[in-house]
Each structure stands twice: as structure tokens, then as C-alpha cells.
Amino acid sequence: MITARAAATFEPVGRSVATARSFVRDTLQGWGFSDVVDDAVVLTSELVTNAVVHAGTAADVQCLRTDDAVRIEVSDHYPEREIPLQSSPATMGSPDREGGRGLQLCAALATRWGVDYTPTHKQVWFQLDLPDRPVGTRAAGPSLAPELLPLTDGRVRVAVVQIDRTGAISAWNEDAEELFGYVAEQVVGKPLTDFAAWPHTPGTSTGIADALQLSRWEGSYGIRDADGRVTPVYASHLRVRDTDGEPSTVCLLVRDDERAVLQTPLRGPAPEPGVLSEPGAPDSFEVFIGSPPPDDLDGLLQRTVERARDMLDGDAAFLLLATDDETELEVRASTGLPSARQRFARVPVEAGTGRYGSARMPAVHEDLTAVPDAVPLLKGTGMRSVVTVPLKVEGRLTGSLGVAAEIPDRYSNEEALRLQFAADRIALAVESARISELERLRRGSLSFLVEASDLLAGTLDRDQTLALMAQMTVPTLATWCAVYTIADQSSEPDLSYVLHEDEERIDGLKALLKKVSPPEPVPTPGARVWTAPSEAAHQSALRTSMRSLGLGEPMSTTAGIGTSLSTASAVGGETVVLPLVARNRVIGMLTLGKPSDEHFRQEILELAEDLSRRAALALDNARLYSERTAISQSLQRSLLPPGLPQVPGVEVDVIYRAAGEGNEVGGDFYDLFPIRDGAYGFAIGDVCGTGPEAAAVTGLARHALRLLAREGFGGPAVLERLNAAILDEGARSRFLTLLYGELWPQDDGSAILKIVCAGHPLPLRLRQDGTVEPYAEPQPLLGVMDDLELYEQTATLEPGDVLLCVTDGVTERREGTRMLGDDGLADVLTTCTGLTAGAVAARIMRAVERFATDAPSDDMAILAMRVPERQD
After folding, report:
1. Burial of 682 (0-12, 13-18, 19+ CB in 10 A)
2. CA nearest to 716, candidates 741, 698, 737, 734
3. Where do the H-state alpha helices sit in 458-558?
4. What angle do CA 476, 480, 483 make, to 5 degrees?
5. Which of 388, 394, 724, 738 has the smallest C-beta neighbourhood within 10 Å, fewest atoms?
6. pLDDT by residue (tens digit) across 775-784?
7. DSSP classification of residue 55
8. Burial class (CB in 10 A: 0-12, 13-18, 19+), 291
9. DSSP code per residue over 5-26
10. CA distances from 568 to 97, 530, 538, 561, 595 (A)
């Protein structure tokens, strides 16, 4: 039964694919189905691309929600187009084929999928089943002896916070006021997200807004109190509905160290018949296992180390998971150690000096000072004794669990057996959660790369590409990012862009990186560790601390102390460099960093490497486009007159618009230049066509006019010789309409004009009384016939008269079947009486632009000359 529906239609243009992805993502997240968002976005992207790009029609996307599944339907309007199916699913849509890969994804990711035809459209649909989420069912914990019950320090306060359907706080009890320092009036009506500090592991965690939409959720996060400190809390969220049917969420929160008040233990499996458990093992196991959500690997691991530490009464505990090739162990959770910062650090498994040799078998180290390299994770932590046990599934090493104490000889084989018993019970759950997390991360990575490619392909601007590269990595992949670019092989890397998730730290980070020599531009693929920033940050913080203690140069203010220490903590963790390689050349480096003592996961580095390859090609494309645009614009500008000369007694103004994006010069051109003895030549012309080919003839015509006019040739002779030059161009020649004239300002305030109009729209004369009339006679255009017999016409512009010359891009401006035409231009010109030449040109251009809504498809040039009235 369908319980909700959302639909949208997307036009057959490339940008519709990204819009469709956003529509599906927003719809499913709004329904609270975050578990299937990534798969749905990937499949929607493929199917909408097929509709709008390959089928070339609009795409109708419909999201249907049922109690246990989501169905998404994508329809195009080209039902005759063949579905690229092969003879069997095994051979369907070979990867080498251009089409069919979207259907392969449907077959791989969807629970069900299919194709429906109607006489007017073809519909491809897929269905994703929702994971089971029991509502309101929790397992009861075992009864425990009093000495095993958790301790509390004074009164236990349970904060009760109610959240309305918009995510805003609607109720806040007295215990919440005591815990966090806010009275109800300060928080009611504000979003919980303003106060929550939510942990985030890219690709694996659920946001707090998503958690509030779940029917039941339990876990840890932080609340920022009135003093700005983060109080770790353990929370239980329950979705409810009031008497009016309005949904809301009730949150119960306690301090994290009092989590036993809300946390419900999960009963472990019963021992196999006939098998006796170790003495005390069941009780230990029940306390150890806890009740994490089934897909919350981080919560499961953290709870595991805390239970292991408590079970053996240790000072610290840690858990490592094996990498995919099982040659290394990756730190995933710890408690009681300053090396919680070592999260995602890796240590080899093989035995030997400095190796984690005890990983495959339970081991007890009575005193680590005697074998300091036995457990590298504990070096420098003050721990003296440790017991470690392996996590194994079907004989494979999947991880290692350890408990440590600050005193030697703390543990014996008995504790090792107890810990091994617990590890055996938890190993399968951990491995299952790890595989689920890895699968979600990979699917999220695929969705991330699809959107990244779409964004990078959407711009050819270098600066915007650099900004997109950084914004896609921060904070999704890293805490901060710096992009270095290399102009050519002889250039040094240049720090081009810096971004930090905390905007207040960007300037300090940029200043620090400028003091550090840039990384070497090594073309070897993959991430490599770069220690220079963290070393420089620690040195800077050390010098700052010494100055603050009076052991060095005095500091003028205490602000410098905070800045240096803040920068040190911001870049004090692991920093990696990935080369940006495009067209077999290193064009830059992408640098990613973590805060103090944090490490990157291998999955994140692999995702960053994929992103760097896409970003490098986008950046190089932007560079090539910028270079070619700069060359094109420079050449085009050389075809325009350097500037209009001042003509005594005559106002002159020009407006020029070249058709086509990025064009500054087209087939239309103009010029005004001094000839001799107070005479000025002027011209306005139109070469057949637009773009670079027409601009080439424009350059020939403009320069030939100046040269011939200054050689003393009259108007007809100038145009006849220009006609011969155009015909000499052969196949590259284009016909040309041209209005050429000579202007002679007179002492009485008038101006004499000699004009030749070779196939060009006739100039218009506006008199002071508002009458408009043509000012010349039409003659043959240039570039068509060899022998031309042209003549010039002489006329006088009286004070107050205006001469308007335009190209046919003005008179042929169209809106549907309507055209401005010569009469429309004359009507506009009649309204320009008394205006200056600049105002006349501006009014004509404004009228032309308003005549039609579409962008002009032809070049336009307007030349206005006016003889001002004499001032008595």
C-alpha cells in the first residue's frame, strides 16, 4: 500500500541529472529513509541520464513510499528506444558497451526492478527494501549481583527534552537546566542542532536530524552547555505522537558516565547444549556486550572497549580491526588512553621488532618496559602490563582487543581467557557491522564521486574549480585542505587555495603553510604523508609557549598565544599529499589534513585519490580554457579601435555588442579616425556571419580603411580597393556591407559629410524638429563583384542634428514573427530630440534589447554623431 508519493519532471538538459539526484535525496531523507539514499541517488542518476541525454526527452521521476520499501520510477517519452538487454542477465550490458550499464546497476543494487511500456512513454523502475526497525521492542538485561551494578556519583539527573516535528525544542525540564545551564526560556523554540555536538565519521554516521526521525535511537553525543563546554551525554530518543496526531521526539539524556541508567543490555546467545561456559563467563559477557544499534560500528566498538576495561578492572582498553588484506591492524576504538587520537592509525601484524606480533594469539605482557615494542599503541602512555586477544571469524583474524593497566604484573592467563571468551562472542557482531559499514562507505563514495564529477564538469573557471575541490573535501574527507598549483615544469608549486572547516582558522593555516616549503611534485599515484606542516605548527606553538613563560622574546599580546596553539591543534594530525596529474603532467598537489594526532582511514584516502584524478582533469581543462580565452580576447581586442578621438564641434558615441559567449568582436565593426587637415574618417560595417571567421575580415577591412584613407584616396576609391582586397582572400572572403564617410567640422558650428553606403542599412538623420529621414542612397555591397562603380554623397549636419548609423543586427531584431525594421528604428529615433549622442545611442540599444526576450543572435553596432546647438 502506497503511503506517500512525490513526483517531478526534468527537462532534457544535462543539468537535470543533478537536479533529479537532489530531488530524490531530499525526498527520501524527508521520509527518514537515510539507509537507502545513496543507492537510490546512484540509480536515479543513471536512469535520468539515460532519459535526458540518450533518449533526449524530458524525464518524469516519481518516488513511492510503502510500509517496507521505496519504489522510484523514471519515465521518458521515447518508447521506441530499445532497452539494451542481452540474452541473459549474466551478459546484460557489457561494461565495454556504451549503454546498459544503468540497468546493470539496477540489477546489482535494487531489490526488484523492471521496465514498463505504454504508447507514449517508457518507464524504468526499481525498488529498495527498507531495513527492519523494530518499534518499541528492547531486550531485558539479566539480574546482577549488587557489586556488579554501576556506581553513580550523587544524584542521577535525567534531562527530558521534547523536540517538535521541525526539530525545535518544545520542552526542557529542571534536570536539563541543571545539567546544561540553560533555563527553558533560553532554548525553547531553538533547534536541538544548535546545542548538539554530533560525532561524524564520513560515510558511516547518522546525523542528529536523521536520528530524531527514527522511531527509536540510542547512543552518545555531546551538548554544548551555557559556558560553551561540551558535556558528553548518553541519549535515548523515542518518536511519539500527541493527541492531535502531531509527531514529536522525546529525548532522555544523562551524563555519559551514567549511561547505564538508559542503556539496555542485550541478552547473549545461550551456550550450546552440553558445553559448559567458563566460570563467571555468562555474567561477564552480559555486562560486556551492551546493546548497540546493529549498524552502528563505532558505538559497538566503543562500548566493547569500555566493557572490556570494566570487566578486567583495567586502566585502559583498545580495539583494532584488520584491514582487508589482513596484513595490518587499524585502531578503531580506545578508552583511558591519550592515544584515542590514534584513531585509524595502522600497525603491521607480522612478528618482529616493533611489530604487533601477539595479534594472532592471546598474550599477556607483565611489564612493557622490558619489551617496549610489543604493543606500539601503548608507547609513552604509562601503561605497564597488558593482555591482548584476537578477534577471529571462521579462523580469519579480524581484529585484536586489549586491556592495559598502569602497574606491572596485573594480568594472568585467567584474565586472558575471560577476555578471549568475550572476544569470541563479540567477533561475529563486530565483523558483520564492519562489513555493513564498508558497504555503506563504498556506496556513499560512489554517490559522492558522481556528484563531484557533475560539479567539476559544470565549470571552466580556474578559481571556481579550486574552490570546488576544497569544498568537496572539507569536512567530508578532511578537516582542512590546501591546493598547490604548478604553472609549468620550471615553476615552483604555488599555494592557490586553503580551506578549514573552522573559518576562523583559515588565515592562520594559510600563514603557516606559506612558511613551509611546498611538497615535492611527485607524479607517483596515491597519498603520501607530509610531516612539514605539523612539525612547523608544533615548533611555532613551542616558541609561543616559551615566550609566554618569559623564556624568549616577549609577546605583545596574549592573542598570539591562542593563535599559535590553535593552529598547532588544527594541523597537528596526519597530513597527506595527493598529486594532481593531468595529461601526463603534475599540475599541482591536493593536501589534506587532520587535527591533532588524528589519522586518515584507508577508505578515505582511496576516495580522495579518485577525487584528485577527476579534479586534476577539471583543473587542467579550466587552465586550457582560460589560456585560450585570454588569447582569443587579446586577438579580438586588437581588432577594435584603440579609442574614439575627440572631434571638435561634434559629439560622437558608439555602442558595440558581439554575439556569442566570450566574443568581444564579431562580424560588425566601427571606426573613427583622423585623416588630414581637420577631416575625420568614420565607418560602420557588417561582415557576413559571426564569430572568429567574420572577425578576421573585420580586421582586414578596418586596417585597410585607415591606410587607404590616409593615403589621400576619396571614399569611392577607398571602398573599391577594399573590395579588391576582400576578393583576393579567395575561399576565406566574405561579402561586406559598409558605410564609409568623411566628416569636416565647420567654423559656423555645422559639419559637412561625404558618405558612401555600400549595401549597408541607410544612415538616419534626426532634425531638431523631430523629423527623421534617410541620409544617403544604397549602392552595391563589397566582396561580390570585381568592378564596382561607387560614388559619394555630400550633405550638411546643422546644429542640433543627429546622424545615426547602425548594423542590421539592430534593424533585424526579432520577437517571433515581429521585426523591429527600419520603420521601428525611425520611430525610436524620433523620441531622441534634444539628447546627446551618448544618450541617443543608449536609448536605441535599450529599445532593441526590450523588443525581444531572447539574447541577440547577431552582432550589433550603433554609431551616433550629433552637432550640438550653438551657445550664444
Report:
1. buried
2. 741
3. 462-473, 506-515, 532-548
4. 105
5. 394
6. 889 999 998 8
7. I
8. middle
9. EEEEEE-SSTTHHHHHHHHHHH
10. 51, 15, 6, 11, 8
Does the pLDDT at position 350 exceed 70?
A: no
Bridge partners (DSSP) listed for residue 866: 651, 802
CB contact at 8 A, 332 and 321 = yes
Find the range with the poorest average confidence among 238-242, 384-388, 398-402: 238-242
539-585: pLDDT as tens digits: 776 666 555 555 555 544 444 444 555 555 566 678 899 999 988 88
Instruction: Provide the 8-state DSSP code for 585.
Output: E
> What is residue 284's predicted lDDT score, i.e. its pLDDT?
39
Residue 392 vs residues 325, 388, 412, 422, 466: alpha-carbon distances, Å? 14, 13, 21, 12, 45
Number of H helices, E strands in the chain: 19, 34
How confident is the model at residue 299, as a pLDDT?
A: 81
What is residue 601's predicted lDDT score, i.e. its pLDDT? 77
Kindly give, in sequence order, each residue whose CB lies less than 8 Å from that of residue 637, ignoring residues fewer than 6 positions away.
664, 665
Crossing angle (nearest 10°) for helices 16-30 and 413-457: 140
Q: What is the mean pLDDT of residues 193-197?
A: 84
- The pLDDT of residue 541 is 65
**Contact criterion met (CB below 8 Å) for 844 and 809:** no
Query: What is the overall mean pLDDT for the chain?
Result: 79
581, amino acid identity = V
Does the pLDDT value for residue 285 go beyond 50?
no
* Local confidence band at 289 (pLDDT 50, 70, 90 cut-offs): very low
Instruction: Pick the closest to residue 681 from 719, 727, 724 (CA basis).
Output: 719
Residue 185: which of 193, 855, 176 has the closest Cα?
Answer: 176
Does residue 126 contact residue 110 with C-beta atoms inside 8 Å?
yes
CA distances from 790 to 200, 305, 615, 701 (A): 80, 98, 60, 17
Can you tell me the distance from the alpha carbon of 663 to that of 640, in angstroms, rounded to the nearest whole number?
Answer: 12
Is the distance from CB of 510 to CB of 498 less than 8 angstroms?
A: yes
Closest CA relative to residue 611, chosen from 446, 441, 437: 446
Count Cα atoms within 13 angstroms, Cβ side, for 823: 2
Radius of gyration of the chain (CA): 38
What is residue 459's three-state secondary structure? coil
607: its cell numbers: 576516495
CA dist 692 → 328, 461, 498, 638, 639 (Å): 60, 22, 38, 13, 11
Kindly report, residue by residue over 740-777, the tens digit of the pLDDT.
999 999 988 899 999 999 999 999 999 988 999 998 89
Mean pLDDT along residues 227-249: 83
How far is 709 from 697, CA to CA, in rounded Å? 18
Angle value at C-alpha 631, between 628 and 634, nearest 5 degrees: 145
Is a pLDDT exceeding 50 seen at residue 355?
A: no
Q: Which residues contact 626 (CB under 8 A, 6 or more apart)?
A: 460, 461, 462
**How many CB atoms are located within 10 Å of the residue 114 CB?**
12
Q: Measuring CA to CA, which residue among 241, 242, 224, 223 is closest to residue 233?
A: 223
**691 with 860: CB under 8 angstroms?**
no
Is residue 389 within 8 Å of 401, Cβ to Cβ? yes
**Mean pLDDT, residues 703-710 taken together:** 90
**Alpha carbon of residue 825 to chain centroid:** 48
Torsions phi, psi for 564 (to 5 deg): -65, -45
Cell numbers that stand for 93 in this block: 550490458
Spatial neighbors of 231 by CB under 8 A, at least 6 apart, are 179, 180, 222, 223, 224, 225, 255
Select from 442, 528, 521 the least CA-distant residue to 489. Answer: 521
Cis amide linkage into residue 475, ω under 30° from 0:
yes
681 pLDDT more than 80: yes
Residue type, 318: F
Residue 98 pLDDT exceeds 60? no
Q: Which one-letter amino acid corresponds to residue 55?
A: A
Neighbours of 499 (CB within 10 A): 22
- CB of 560 closer than 8 Å to CB of 546: no
